Amino acid sequence: MKASWGIALLIGVLAVSFTLRYGGIVDSQSDQSVYTHQEMRMELEMETDAASIQSMEEVVFLLRAARPSGEPISGATVHIRVSMPDMLCGILPGDAVETAPGHYRITVLPVMPGRWQAETQLSWQGNVSSMTASFDAH
Ligand SMILES: [Cu+2]
Q: Which domains are seen in the chain, by residue range?
């Protein structure tokens, strides 16, 4: 996965800016850049209150995807997986459902307390953008 990002960078694709926002106290990594073949904008927001995340309870994100013009990106393929960066306890898939044009509701299940990272990949018409968000389960 990381190798493919590097290749994408090397072939000179355009940078895509997206804003990573959290609804609560999570990471301070509020802005990240991703790279794709064309400009796409991804915005990820945690709907679950970060302070209330419990292990074995669903965590919900809203991913908004749009063209730079603001036109929603509908019909994209969204893959999500969560893992614990400090442990080798596995990589778990999440679910993503488009609930409105360009709005994808993402659910993941942290199966134990601790630090988790959620890696989200958006694919649309040959463009791929990825981002990672972190959160703590109690
Ligand atoms: Cu673990």
A: 2-137 (2.60.40.10)
Q: What is the CA(98)–ligand 1 centre distance, in A? A: 29
Which of 20-23's residues contact partners 24+ apart within 8 Å by CB, and which partners? 20/44, 20/131, 20/133, 21/45, 21/46, 22/46, 22/50, 22/133, 22/135, 23/47, 23/48, 23/49, 23/50
Q: What is the whole-number distance in angstroms between the Cα of residue 133 and the centre of ligand 1? A: 16
- Residue-wise pLDDT for 60-113, tens only, equals 999 999 998 889 999 999 999 999 998 988 999 999 999 999 999 999 999 999
Q: Over pLDDT 70: what percentage of the chain?
A: 72
Give yes or no for residue 116 having a pLDDT over 70: yes
Q: What distance in angstroms lies between residue 50's CA and the mean position of ligand 1's atoms?
A: 18
How far away, in angstroms, is 111 Cα from ligand 1 center? Answer: 8
